[in-house]
C-alpha cells in the first residue's frame, strides 16, 4: 500500500488521463464559429464579473496564472475538469432522458475491456482484497422491452482506491470488463466492493483544494456505460448507502436515483445488489 501510494502521484495519474483523452476523445469539433464565440465570450464575461465584484488584486491574478500553468504542466486538466465541471455538462446533456439517470464518466475510463458473458467475474488478482460483491440486474427500454445482448461496460477502483491503468502495479484490466446481457437483458457480475478514495492531491488540483480548505474525497462507486443497438448509451455511477461522502462528493456526481440497496449475499460472503437500467431510444 505504501509503495503504491508513493507512486500513484497526481503527475502520473494526470499523464495517464491526458494520454487516454488524447487517444480516445481529442480531435476536431464541428461546433460552428458563432457558437464558439458565444461560449468563449460568456465564460470570459463571467471571469471579468468575478474580478470586478471581488476586486481581484495583481498578486491574486498572478497566483491564478501560476496555478493554470501548473495544471497544464502536471497534465491535470482531465482530472480538474472531470471533477469540477463535468457534472454540469452531464446534467445538461441528459436533461431530456426518460430512462435511467446518468452521471459523470470521470477521468479513469479505458475502452476495450475484456468481453465477458452474462454471468461474469471481473478480472482480478488472486486473493483480491475487499468485500465480495454480486451485482445483477436487467437492461430494458423505456417501453419495458428486455434488451437482450446489451453491453454493461463496468470499471471501478480496488480496495485501496486505485484504478487499473492509472496506478502502477495493477494488471491492465483489473476490475474492468464488458458484460454481454443474456436474451432477457439480464446480467450477473461478481467483483469486490470498491473503496472511497481521495483524488490525487500532490499536484495543482490538490494545491487548489488545500488553498480553499476543501476535501478531496469521492464516495465508493461503481462506474458503468450501458448500451444496446438503437438506444442511447447511458454513463453512470452507482453508490453505496452510509458512505460519509455521499452528501459532499467533491465531484458532485451523486444522485438519489443512483443509490444501491445492498443485501447480504445468499452464501453469506459479502453483499448482493440489484439495479436495472432503462435505455432511451437513439
Radius of gyration: 20 Å
Percent of residues in helices comes to 25-40%
- Given the helix and strand composition, which structural class is it? alpha/beta
The top level CATH class name:
Mainly Beta
In terms of topology, how is this protein built?
Layout lengths: L1 H6 L2 H15 L8 H22 L3 H16 L3 H8 L1 H8 L21 E2 L2 E3 L10 E10 L9 E5 L20 E5 L5 E7 L4 E2 L5 H8 L5 E2 L2 E7 L6 E6 L23 E2 L6 E4 L2 E3 L3
Parallel strand pairs: 1-5, 2-6, 3-12, 3-13
Antiparallel strand pairs: 3-6, 4-5, 4-9, 7-8, 9-10, 11-12
Helix pairs in contact: 4-7
Structural notes for this entry:
The structure is a single chain. This protein has a single domain, classed as Aromatic compound dioxygenase (Protocatechuate 3,4-Dioxygenase, subunit A), CATH 2.60.130. The radius of gyration is 20 Å and the shape is globular. Strands 2, 3, 6, 11, 12 and 13 form a six-stranded mixed beta sheet that branches. Strands 1-5-4-9-10 form a five-stranded mixed beta sheet, with no helix packed on it. Strands 7-8 form a two-stranded antiparallel sheet. The protein contains seven helices and 13 strands. The protein is 29% helix and 21% strand. β9 (221-227) and β10 form a beta hairpin. By secondary structure, the protein is of the alpha/beta class. α4 (58-73) packs antiparallel against α7 (204-211).
Amino acid at each position: 500500500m505504501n509503495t503504491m501510494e508513493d507512486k500513484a502521484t497526481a503527475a502520473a495519474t494526470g499523464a495517464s488521463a491526458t494520454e487516454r483523452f488524447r487517444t480516445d476523445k481529442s480531435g476536431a469539433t464541428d461546433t460552428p464559429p458563432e457558437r464558439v464565440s458565444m461560449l468563449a465570450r460568456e465564460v470570459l464575461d463571467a471571469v471579468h464579473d468575478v474580478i470586478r465584484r471581488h476586486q481581484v488584486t495583481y498578486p491574486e491574478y498572478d497566483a491564478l496564472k501560476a496555478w493554470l500553468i501548473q495544471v497544464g504542466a502536471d497534465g491535470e486538466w482531465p482530472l480538474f475538469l472531470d471533477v469540477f465541471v463535468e457534472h454540469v455538462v452531464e446534467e445538461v446533456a441528459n436533461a431530456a432522458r426518460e430512462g435511467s439517470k446518468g452521471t459523470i464518466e470521470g477521468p479513469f475510463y479505458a475502452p476495450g475491456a475484456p468481453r465477458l458473458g452474462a454471468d461474469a467475474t471481473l478480472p482480478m488478482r488472486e486473493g483480491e482484497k475487499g468485500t465480495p460483491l454480486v451485482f445483477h440486474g436487467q437492461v430494458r427500454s423505456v417501453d419495458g422491452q428486455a434488451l437482450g445482448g446489451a453491453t454493461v461496460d463496468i470499471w471501478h477502483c480496488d480496495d485501496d482506491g486505485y484504478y487499473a491503468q492509472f496506478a502502477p502495479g495493477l494488471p491492465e484490466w483489473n476490475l474492468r470488463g464488458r458484460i454481454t446481457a443474456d436474451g432477457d437483458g439480464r446480467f450477473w457480475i461478481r467483483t469486490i466492493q470498491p473503496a472511497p478514495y481521495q483524488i490525487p492531491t500532490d499536484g495543482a488540483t490538490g494545491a487548489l483544494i488545500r488553498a480553499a480548505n476543501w476535501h478531496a474525497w469521492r464516495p465508493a462507486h461503481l462506474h458503468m456505460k450501458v448500451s444496446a443497438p438503437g438506444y442511447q448509451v447511458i454513463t453512470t455511477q452507482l453508490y453505496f448507502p452510509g458512505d460519509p461522502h455521499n452528501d459532499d462528493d467533491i465531484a458532485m456526481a451523486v444522485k438519489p436515483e443512483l443509490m444501491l440497496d445492498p443485501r447480504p449475499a445468499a452464501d453469506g460472503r459479502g453483499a448482493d445488489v440489484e439495479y436495472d437500467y432503462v435505455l432511451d431510444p437513439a
